[in-house]
Write a structure and sequence with these properties.
Helix 1 packs parallel to helix 2 and helix 2 packs parallel to helix 3 (126-134). A hairpin with a 3-residue loop joins strand 1 (7-13) and strand 2 (17-22). Helix content is 32%, strand content 22%. The strands form 2 sheets. Strands 1-2-3-4-5-6-9-11 form an 8-stranded mixed beta sheet. By secondary structure, the chain is an alpha/beta fold. It is built from 7 helices and 11 strands.
């Protein structure tokens, strides 16, 4: 599923309540530094001819009109969420857009939170790091503590370094939410299971190291571009969540 508008929703999110989505990426393509085998937006190669990004002015206009509409309906969102067709922090004006969104939120919807869903691959850019600090909630993805597993599940672009990404995330000093999907299956002849004892031990060590304020764990909920994948049962997710909660960390489960 792709988002063909700059602003979409609000939709009822399992994690974020009534969420008004913002897509900073091509309306009919996908632009991401990951090519996740489970991504609801499909593969990066799908719709690759559409490379146009909305301008920061277009984003601000679309967001303001939608917030005014929702305010008139007494239906303001719980969250203004930057996600969309790929990695939102790739937009060259990401910081300016966040600044404009904060101004609009403060004026029209002061109780709404600003959230960014990110794979954390652009944290080396000072403007992106600063913009993420400005948001109320930063949800950062790490799907395994093992680079080889990340390579299979997330298929990151050339040059991705998991260790450097982890060090960059540490700069938030725990003021972020860690997001991880758990799944099983196979893809291109490679077996996938990030719930094995070794995977879980390494992931728990990572959670202890980063100590985020919240951990969001989930499994497949929608059709995936890779076909041989399966959900992890809810009771297993709950077992994982119990280990995290024992560290004093808030956990959200979406099964």
């Amino acid at each position: 599923m792709r988002f063909h508008q700059i602003v979409y929703g609000p939709i009822q999110s399992r994690r974020l309540g009534r969420s008004l989505g913002v897509n900073l990426l091509p309306a009919r393509g996908k632009w991401c530094t990951f090519d996740c085998i489970y991504c609801e937006c499909g593969w990066n190669s799908d719709g690759i001819k559409d490379k146009r990004l909305p301008s920061k002015e277009e984003v601000a206009q679309a967001l303001e009109l939608k917030i005014i509409e929702l305010a008139n309906q007494n239906h303001l969102p719980d969250t203004i969420t930057f996600s969309g067709n790929g990695e939102p922090t790739l937009h060259p004006d990401f910081k300016s857009i966040i600044e404009a969104t904060i101004s609009l939120r403060n004026y029209y919807a002061p109780d709404s939170k600003i959230c960014v869903l990110s794979n954390a691959t652009q944290l080396h850019r000072p403007d992106v790091f600063q913009a993420l600090w400005m948001a109320d909630t930063r949800i950062l993805k790490i799907d395994s503590a093992f680079p080889q597993t990340v390579s299979i599940i997330d298929q990151p672009s050339v040059g991705y370094d998991l260790a450097k990404t982890i060090e960059a995330i540490k700069r938030f000093e725990g003021d972020f939410s860690l997001q991880t999907i758990f799944l099983r299956g196979n893809h291109r002849g490679k077996s996938i299971d990030n719930t094995t004892p070794d995977e879980q031990a390494a992931w728990m060590a990572l959670v202890k190291k980063l100590h985020p304020k919240e951990v969001m764990i989930y499994t497949i909920d929608r059709p995936t571009p890779a076909v041989n994948l399966s959900k992890v049962p809810l009771f297993e997710l709950r077992n994982i969540a119990d280990e995290v909660a024992a560290l004093g960390i808030t956990v959200q489960i979406a099964g």
